[in-house]
Amino acid sequence: MMPKINFEGMIPYSRQSISEADRNAVLEVLRSEFLTQGPKIGEFEDRLAEYFKADFAVCCSSGTAALHLAYAGLGADAQSIAIVPSITFAATANAFRYLGAKIVFCDVEPKSGILSLDHLQEILAEVTKTGESKKIFICAVSLAGRLAPLVELHEIGRKYGIRIIEDASHSFGSWSGTVDSDRRIRSGDCKLVDASCLSFHPVKHICCGEGGALLTHSGELADRARRLRSHGIHRPFDDQHETPWFYEQLELGWNYRMTDIQAALGISQLERIEDSLSRRREIARKYDDALNTPSFAQRFDCPAYSEGHAWHLYVIRFDREGDRDKAYKFLKNKGIQTQVHYLPLHRHPYYREQMGEISLPGAEKFSKHCLSIPIFPDLREDEQLRVISALADFTRIC
């Protein structure tokens, strides 16, 4: 049995934001003829494609499903090599393993947790040195709300003929580069990658309960992803098949469909995404102002503030060995929930059994020192001040 946790008075590290409009959107679907496979799916897909300026959006049951559909739709299989940063949620790598692909973990920058381009080049030199033609995939994780190095990865992809997928689960609405909005590099717009994948888990920028989406400019990939999300079934509805019940399974797929209930909630949440992003940036700015002082700086670093950062997480990095774990317990005792994102994937038993002991010093350093403190749109000012005060107590007492 799971242990009972008393959350009363606890400030979570993240939490969904549900409005009256969200509840009404869900109730409208519950009163309708379609709870699933109805019109809300296409509407949500159209809204997402418009927001991200991608040609196609394919909604599905989870962020993991979106990754699986993207990898499968782009041809990943047991003969493929999949390069994944070790600092990410397990799904980023697992969805490649579902297809039998060989995982190669890439190290990350120890301060940001973002994929290390230097280590990536070492990996590519190794896997391509025989000159054999291999299918290689890279999943670029835009971690915590900060963009992965998409420009550099795009050039690498062109050089080696590699498929690039962005795991954009953390980076809804993030951008980098020029302040000119038409020239920004944007998460999810797919200008530099073959596909981007979103998650609609409750702690993400948009909550559908669960859910995900694949974004792409490829009509072929979008069509295949739609087929694969529904058992590999094709419904032609053309002059040769006038009977509306006719369908045929073309390949082996999965049941990764999103419900209209989830889509309706997503549509409602998307309507206020800019307010949500503004609120996250406001909270991040307040942390930046409060925590970048000598008393805090001697114990931990804060992420560099950027307007283009989507601030899914606010990750501080402790300097001294063991301080992170002490801070986690100290804050928990004060009713403040924090989290670690993430234990490096190459340290999980499943992957250790597959690969043996490997060393990725950047990932290990980042993981040992990182702590995600509370940030979410409904975090009240008094709650944020309580977090800051507790961190001040920690630096003074511990």
Compact overview of the structure:
With 398 residues, the chain is of the alpha/beta class. The chain contains 14 helices and 14 strands. The strands form 4 sheets. It has a 7-stranded mixed sheet, sandwiched between helices. Strands 12-13-14 form a 3-stranded antiparallel sheet. A two-stranded antiparallel ribbon has the order 6-7.
Major sheet: arrangement of strands? 1-9-8-5-4-2-3
Low-confidence stretches: 1-5
Continuous helix count? 14
End-to-end separation? 34 Å
Relative strand content:
5-15%
Number of strands: 14
Structural class: alpha/beta
Mean pLDDT: 95
Question: What do you see in this structure?
Answer:
The protein is built from 14 helices and 14 strands. Strands 1-9-8-5-4-2-3 form a 7-stranded mixed beta sheet, with helices on both faces. Strands 12-13-14 form a 3-stranded antiparallel beta sheet. A two-stranded antiparallel ribbon has the order 6-7. The model is unreliable at 1-5 (pLDDT under 50). It is globular. The chain has 398 residues and is an alpha/beta fold. Helix 3 packs across helix 4 (91-97).
